[in-house]
Design goal:
single chain; 479 residues; Jelly Rolls; 2 domains; nine-stranded mixed β-sheet; 22 strands; 29% helix
Length: 479
């Protein structure tokens, strides 16, 4: 109670928030220790905690920092890291120490604002890199519950202003996955995107009721609102939803989470993590969830390779649909070039398209790059987006000689032909050293992000080496 009172009185002071988080962590661990020490085995208590995760629903998990999530509590209990509590022991000392920290924070508190730059400088940049992945990775497969996607949230009640109309509402800092996790879509305009998060854009999406209270029957898109003196451009209005669980989402507004933490509220960590789960018996939904995680982890080589392996395993339960590429077997063409394909940075490579270069002795493509890693050359075909929320299988037969680095790549483009993002579906060769092998199947999977209108399917040749390509496919996957 003391912690909550001080948070209300001194919301600008970082020491108060630290002490509040610390007290919450200690209280959770103390409760776990008492339960296990009295009449429960660690295994049965951990099983009870896991049962709290519902299937096929979005679950808000408290996540003050990366060590007090549900997954960490379960691992702490099963790993024997709980301790037998006793009155007057280190627990009481720890509680008194944190309480003393709260009093010290009160004594040292200085006036400020919620967007005070002193606390904002340590905001989003201090977010642990594994904060969102922790719950998703460690709960996969537990009790047949599968994590599809996760989205961090930082909600704060505050005032939103548009000239004369002002409303008091909840401003939610979140990311582009919130709409998917919550099954909550825009009725007009769009939701937040990866580009908004990456560029710290000052954009805002309004709940249905919030938009009506501020603008009446007029369209809010393109207008500017102010929150704590900062301007945000309206880019979307959400559908009328009523409530999701106990939350009246129609009253809320949404801004990029890093902007919310760093520049508006001056906090270091998200308050909640929304997690979408499903039963383990739905392989297509599982595969899409893994593919979305892969898109977020594509720059982490170790995590990305682990997710690719999981994707391939789940995808064995799916059916391969129509091949979306034209002339995928590279058999037709004219003027010594295959139709429907084009080269980019052709001057960097030597290439031939002829009989005897394919994996069965038929026509195929031969590419050689002599030196350098950048710029890269690519062999590309652009296709229309087949459908929203699709899962794609990318595959090709490849033979290599001293290849250092090449990739099967997808680029997702919006209606303005701007990149949404790109992903290396399956790497070929080795970044350090070289690789030589006979014909081999390379296969990978990718999820089509919202807003995609066109997709560039390509082979990218980065480092030196020789490569033979045949039977390049891009297929829809289904059950």
């Amino acid at each position: 109670m003391l912690a909550e009172l001080l948070v209300c009185l001194l919301p600008w002071h970082p020491m108060v928030w630290w002490a509040r988080r610390r007290l919450a962590l200690l209280s959770e661990q103390a409760c776990d220790d008492w339960v296990v020490a009295t009449n429960r085995t660690p295994t049965s208590y951990a099983d009870s905690l896991v049962s709290l995760v519902p299937q096929r629903r979005a679950l808000a998990l408290s996540m003050a920092h990366s060590r007090n999530g549900l997954a960490y509590r379960i691992h702490r209990i099963l790993g024997g890291r709980w301790s037998r509590p006793s009155s007057g022991g280190w627990w009481s000392g720890a509680v008194w120490a944190v309480a003393a920290g709260l009093v010290l924070a009160l004594m040292l508190a200085q006036p400020g604002t919620a967007k005070d730059e002193r606390s904002a400088t340590t905001a989003a940049s201090s977010l642990p890199a594994n904060a969102r992945a922790l719950e998703a990775t460690e709960l996969n497969g537990v009790k047949d519950v599968f994590i599809l996607d996760a989205s961090p949230e930082t909600p704060f009640p505050t005032m939103v202003k548009f000239y004369a109309p002002n409303i008091r509402t909840t401003v939610v800092g979140t990311d582009q996955d919130y709409a998917t996790v919550r099954n909550y879509q825009p009725a007009d305009g769009r939701f937040l995107t990866r580009n908004d998060i990456g560029s710290e854009s000052r954009v805002i999406v309004l709940g249905h009721k919030a938009a009506r209270e501020l603008f009446g029957e007029d369209t809010p898109l393109g207008h500017t609102l102010r929150i704590y003196g900062q301007s945000f451009v309206v880019v979307g209005v959400m559908e009328e939803k009523g409530a999701i669980g106990p939350t009246a989402v129609d009253d809320q507004v949404y801004i990029p989470i890093n902007v919310a933490m760093k520049y508006v509220f001056g906090v270091r960590f998200p308050n909640h993590l929304s997690v979408a789960t499903t039963s383990a018996g739905d392989p297509l939904t599982q595969a899409k969830g893994l593919a979305r995680q892969l898109s977020d982890k594509r720059s982490d080589k170790v995590a990305a390779e682990q997710l690719r392996r999981q994707l391939r395993e789940v995808a064995t339960k799916l059916k391969r649909g129509t091949n979306l590429l034209s002339n995928s077997d590279l058999k037709s063409g004219s003027a010594d070039a295959p139709t429907s394909w084009q080269f980019r940075n052709e001057h960097l490579i030597q290439w031939r398209w002829a009989d005897g270069l394919g994996h069965t002795g038929s026509k195929g493509l031969y590419v050689k790059k002599a030196e350098g890693m950048f710029p890269y050359a690519s062999f590309v075909q652009t296709i229309a987006c087949p459908e929203d929320d699709a899962l794609l299988r990318i595959g090709a037969k490849v033979r290599t000689a001293n290849v250092t680095k090449a990739v099967l790549d997808l680029v997702f483009l919006d209606a303005q032909d701007e990149w949404i993002y790109h992903i290396w579906v399956d790497p070929i060769g080795r970044l350090w050293g070289s690789e030589t092998h006979d014909w081999k199947d390379y296969v990978g999977y990718a999820h089509v992000p919202p807003g995609t209108k066109r997709i560039e399917v390509s082979l990218q040749m980065y480092g030196p080496g020789e490569l033979w390509l045949d039977d390049y496919q891009c297929c829809l996957m289904g059950e």
